[in-house]
Batch of 2 targets.
Target 1
Amino acid sequence: MSLITCENLTLAYDTGVVASGVSFSLEAGDYLCIVGENGSGKSTLLKSMIGLHPVDGGCLTIDPATRKSGIGYLPQHTPAQRDFPASVREIVRSGCLKRSGLRPFWRMSDKKLADEAMARMGIENLAGKCYRELSGGQQQRVLLARAYCATGKLILLDEPIAGLDPMAMTEMYSMIADLNREGVAVVMVSHDVSAAVNYATHILHMSKTTTFFGTTEAYLSTPVGQQFAHREGGSYGDWSPKTAWDAPNIGRILDVRATPDARSVLGARGVSRDRNLTAIRRRGGAASKGEGEDA
Amino acid sequence: MNIIEQLQTYFSYPFVRYAVIAGILISLCAGLLGVVLVLKRYAMIGDGLSHVAFGAMAVAAVLGFAPMTVALPVTVAVAVLLLLAGEKQIIKGDSAIAMLSAGSLAVGYLLLNLFPSSDTGSLSGDVCASLFGSTSMMTLSNTDVWLCVGLSAAVIGFFVIFYHKIFAVTFDEGFATSSGVRVRAYNFLIAAVSGIVIVLAMKLVGALLISSLIIFPALSAMRVFRSFRSVIVCSAVISVLGSLTGLLCALLLSTPTGASVAVVHIVIFLVFTLLGKLRRA
């Protein structure tokens, strides 16, 4: 059974529908990136996966065994956490909540798992430090270590690289990729499409007008993906915060796609674009093949 | 040795012993709860609830019931309702609290004015005791003390048994939910516990000074300590020692209990702020 099956899902707030007609499925070991403009319901979709937001239509099923064994979740920062007195060790250990059930104290195995998680994320020397005194990158590693403690199968990341410097971003991505190589399925909400295309096996593109779900290669052959490839040009793969997806553009691109004239205009410049695309496909194909072998 | 002898004389009276026992237990609970309330941004709720408790006590006095029997359920119910209102954002949290505080204070005072209690005969004495806790600590009955002991034990038990869950719910509700913690249920429990602690704390410091007992120790502890466990332990210790000092000062110097306890907590806060600055420097 798929880890997550989502069919024709509708998500809404009191103010209105934020996403509708969302369908996708996630298999064990997949790396799914959810991209799209602000307000397209990416984070809400993630929240509905862990039961933080109700499903307003369609169906969203999480494999019961996975749900039972635990889902790792890395949420966006809340303002309250900025001055919260908590040590790194305390936060990482709280990832063992699901395993410990109603037991009021941590077992040795819980503590060991937390230590292992901290060692993996390279934060064991910060164990006694206060969370609020860490840098943004270190804080995200702490939250990733906590999510790691909570699951062995499925990890949900809500913009894990938001606000990080390029160095910390790279480290974060490689740690997530390592987890994925070990067979942990990853669902990541991100604004950084270039990284998404680089690392993910599947892309879910959410927008007000249309949604796309498919493999990364298929995504790159859609008009939106092609436009992205075109924009990135020869510098593809050399991603940095500057090349992160800017939200207003996506709506424009989708509008362009809707008008045949505009599409043919785009098509007229197809030569250079196709060359870039081929390069990207080669890269993307190699990456996904490599990941498949490891899994 | 004068002070020691004086204290010995005082402690030979059962009502002083009751006051000290109840004071220690109430402060312990308030210290534990305060950390959670401060970190969940609910500090004002404590203040609002104490006014509600005052109103409820006034109603109880007018109707001739024991104050606690009315104030306890009413305050717990309002605490839960406030939490619900916060979730649904019917009225913005702080406005709702401000409305409730002023409303219940006004109704409470009006009721006490219209139907003066026949037992004490003094309106200002009644109001003063409820608002500033000046005499109520020294007039605890045996039942009051046992109620204090029972409720405090329940509150402390709640914190010990659910410590990790409380941490998770306070630090990150989203992650707690994803770990299968029933966040809503814990929020309800925390609200109920707040109601209980506030009604108890009213005895010690009175309705208007509750924050000094609940919020000050937590903030003092947060000035110096950096982990949740050390903050919560330190807050409980500060709360107990501060209240004990305040109570003894009140006894020895014949000052009002509530105000003395509050002033001691303010001094502790200032000292800890200084310690925190020194530690960071």
Target 2
Amino acid sequence: MRHLLTTAGLPRKTVTALLDTAEALKQSLLGREVRKLPTLRGRTVVTLFYESSTRTRASFEIAGKWMSADVVNISAGGSAVAKGESLRDTALTLTAMGADCVVLRHPASGAAHRLAGWVPAHVINAGDGTHQHPTQALLDAATLRERLGDLNGRTVTIIGDVLHSRVARSNIELLITLGARIRLVAPPTLLPRDVAHWGNALASTSGDWPVTVSHDLDAALPGSDAVMMLRVQTERMHGEFFPSAREYAISYGLTEARLGLLPEHAVVLHPGPMLRGMEIAYSVADSPRAAITEQVRNGVHVRMAVLYHLLAGRDDQTPGEEV
Amino acid sequence: MSSPSGMGAVGAAGPLRQRELLSAAEVARIVARMAHQIIERTAPEPVVMLGIPTRGVPLAHRLADRIREFGGPAPVVGTLDVTLYRDDLRRRPTRPLRATELPDDGLDDVLVVLVDDVLYSGRTVAAALDAVREYGRPRAVQLAVLVDRGHRELPIRADYVGKNVPTSRDEEIGVLLTETDRTDAVVLRAYDRDQR
């Protein structure tokens, strides 16, 4: 594996290898006083963030440091980007200084893909616009696998602002690869157009597109093995998508009453940051059904696994060969 | 097999010759002898046996079973994956990680016996020593291997050796164990120099 840009078309074998590596790393660090592995000594990882982030950036930084990589953090404000430098020039500057891997977050969809064509370094997409956020989908899958076991045949309901959500896009592709079925529940204004028929246009799914769409949350909950709440991304909303926050919370918020509609084993996920009282009730976010802190914890191990697969081995391998 | 070229890549054309060095009965006898040697050197102190994946793990369990059977102090068995500590990671495609399962009480002040199937360059053992240090400070660390095939690249030797087998670098030692290979045997495979 050279880059991690998208979950679309990622072979199941590669996904499983990444999740297995994350699990092995988690296990090998469990209960240790010194959480430091020598594996990526001498490798330099740069996080380049053009959008604000707490958990993703911190998670990558911790993942790199626990594997002894040198991690340099750069954010758009306070760097040469603020002086007008282009993404390409910034990235070339950083690789000229010896960055082996660039972790990019950018508001433009496709930015990581462009970057991968410009620099010799490995590129990890840490979120590009409304397109993809592959490590989030991997950590969600790791968390679901821990709680539910094999995801084959499981139903995952994704609720909320699907339209603006790179988390949803990455998860849909990845979970389908792992054999899960997807339900999207959202107001019509927050769903991408024609999403129920995307399968016809995507080569990666070979015809079968196990995604259904609904606007009725209460009806979708009983058959769900997991629900994934999405943050309402007001920063990307230029226009009116729903009448009021209160009305959104009433129709699409995961309340205590709705939690009761879920099967006993069902897991509640949220990629964070959460808007409590909006898409998820206070008590639901703190309930034992919610795996939100586990998601964050697994995020570090999943990102360690990605760094391991990109940076630890010999460079000349082709995707799929590493397993 | 954890050693980089102990068994590893089998050429597309297969080995030129394959010769059985140890039969199932001989493997069993050797494991029993090693168990006796471990008891002689360590009793009454109980040891922590750490198997190095893949085939060091079943070997560690077999040695522990024999030690119990022969009345030695009951060993604790764990597994130690050394992949993350290897010094040759960058020379090969990404290696999958294996499980690491250590005793709940950690490794501080205990007698650890590392168990692997083949001792070759010594690099796996060096990585294992680095890994052990991350988990604690054992009182002492010893090494048990089923086959020592020579060609050391580091100043490392085994405390318990099942069998010394002089080899050339073109050859491979294959350790087969029922737990992983459905049969017990040790074989020597010779390759054409051009095939490897």
